[in-house]
Design a protein that fits this description.
The protein is of the alpha/beta class. Helix content is 39%, strand content 18%. The chain contains 16 helices and 14 strands. The chain has a 6-stranded mixed sheet with strand order 1-2-6-3-7-14. A hairpin with an 8-residue loop joins strand 1 and strand 2. The longest helix is centred in the last third of the chain and has 23 residues, at 414-436. It starts with 11 loop residues before the first helix and ends in a 21-residue tail after the last helix.
Length: 473
């Protein structure tokens, strides 16, 4: 890459109008603290699953309308998706806001395991924080633009169903990011980092086998077990793992295996994920998964069909933007926790094992690095439509894994809200830099064009299917 020698992380002062220098963007974020905490807590309590986030999405829309944003709701054929905008002229800078919870896990905000009776989902990936932090950042940017008279628009994208629903992919496919100049993204984590992080491509599908029911003891010869079809498929796919490349990840759950042992099940379903760092490799692997399903059906005398549920391209990180974000993150004062919050965090840490990092890691910034992560995100498709910059902040106790009860607890606690405010500050500083530094904008767009290639044509891993609005029902 040839872009970075001219990058000046602190160059905002070079191009910033005098009036813009007189308005402290950090103070604009600090003024939103009550909103951040309140909105994060409400969405945490709602804990709504993908494409069902009616109250969570509605809460964000209500907050934005009160601040004068224009709102487009129900975009990309998704009732809970929206685009909110304020300002005029350019550049157009978007922020992403997620708000879906995960099924099958819940927890109170207590620092010991404490499931909430009757609650079937929880914010184990901190998307309540994600939505609240991006909301506060968008409003702080709006206030900064207005106070300084800086030309530009701030746009908040309400993006449902990140967890297995690929909401942003449908929004990207609908062209909702095509007229944005840059997008700023963040995610809750157990550390502070602006690493240049590439994710894995991912495609998922539900394979549905249909057989013939019969009494499993009295007339087994009349039955054809749909569960046998699922198990035969799983066996073949598990053998296939020996003959895939090192980066391949394949995992599944049996979502329906029958209801009673003495009834030959006439329906069974298995839900598969396939991941790889290269989207083309996922495309190549998928027909082998389908072939295993067909073979399993033939061998068990059943029938099978399948539905692609979601698919994400890998993220396309840009070092010019990530280095800028790294500088902004390092310029912030460390997160300050109260004595009560530190005692709460110490109790959480006891559940993480003897090798858990020290609590002080939450005040540090990870060394900048270029990484490939093994998760997947629909932000990948956004990053291939528009130059995108990302940051992670310590909203969880160091050593906490995503999708854990410890993450749910922190996401509903003031400890998580502190890290969320930290993310909002980093995002606002990055936005100010992009509004006021034309040299950085030019450098990042040139890097983006080179990274995509001259012949790049966007292709989603979803095909032309409509959003699966019932995939969590």
């Amino acid at each position: 890459m040839k872009f970075f020698a001219i990058l000046a992380v602190g160059a905002a002062a070079i191009a910033t109008p005098v009036c813009a220098q007189d308005v402290d963007p950090i103070l604009q974020v600090e003024a939103q603290q009550e909103r951040t905490e309140r909105v994060a807590q409400r969405i945490w309590e709602f804990a709504e699953l993908g494409y069902l986030e009616t109250r969570s999405s509605g809460l964000l829309v209500d907050e934005l309308q009160r601040e004068g944003f224009s709102i487009r709701q129900g975009v990309a054929e998704i009732p809970t998706a929206f685009v909110a905008e304020w300002g005029e002229g350019g550049p157009v800078i978007g922020l992403l806001a997620e708000f879906d919870a995960l099924p099958g896990i819940n927890q109170s905000s207590a620092p010991t395991r404490d499931p909430v009776a009757g609650k079937h989902a929880g914010h184990a990936c901190g998307h309540n924080l994600f939505g609240a932090g991006s909301l506060s950042a968008a409003i702080a940017i709006r206030n900064w633009l207005e106070a300084t008279g800086t030309p530009g628009r701030v746009r908040l994208y309400g993006t449902p169903a990140e967890e297995g629903g690929s909401g942003k992919v449908y929004m990207a496919r609908a062209g909702l990011f095509d007229d944005a100049d840059f997008v700023i993204d963040w995610h809750p984590a157990d550390r502070n980092s602006a690493a240049s992080r590439k994710s894995l491509a991912n495609r998922s599908g539900k394979f549905r086998f249909r057989g013939v029911s019969a009494h499993a003891a009295g007339a087994p010869e009349r039955g054809r077990s749909a569960l046998d079809g699922v198990e035969a498929m799983n066996m073949m796919v598990n053998m296939m793992r020996e003959h895939t490349s090192m980066d391949t990840r394949i995992h599944y759950v049996i979502t329906d295996g029958g209801k009673a042992p003495n009834v030959v099940p006439d329906f069974a379903e298995v839900f598969y994920y396939v991941r790889h760092s290269d989207a083309d490799e996922v495309r190549a692997l998928w027909p082998r998964i389908e072939a295993a399903a067909k073979g399993a059906a033939m061998g068990t005398g059943t029938e099978v069909d399948w539905e692609i549920i979601h698919g994400n391209n890998p993220t396309l990180p840009l070092q010019s933007l990530q280095l800028m974000m790294d500088g902004k993150l390092r310029s912030l004062e460390p997160i300050e926790h109260t004595v009560d919050e530190l005692e709460w965090a110490a109790t959480i840490r006891e559940s993480l094992g003897e090798d858990a990092p020290e609590l002080a890691q939450a005040q540090q910034v990870e060394d900048y690095a270029v990484l490939t992560g093994y998760g997947s995100t629909d932000v990948g498709d956004v990053s291939r439509a528009v130059p995108t910059v990302s940051v992670r902040t310590a909203t969880w106790v160091p050593g906490t894994a995503a999708h854990s009860w410890q993450a749910v607890a922190a996401s509903g606690h003031s400890y998580g809200a502190k890290g969320t405010q930290h993310a909002a500050k980093a995002m606002v500083l990055a936005a100010v830099e992009l509004y006021t530094n034309p040299q950085l904008r030019e450098t990042a767009k040139a890097e983006f064009a080179e990274a995509r290639g001259a012949d790049y044509v966007y292709e989603s891993l979803l095909g032309d299917r409509k959003p699966p609005l019932d995939y969590r029902k």
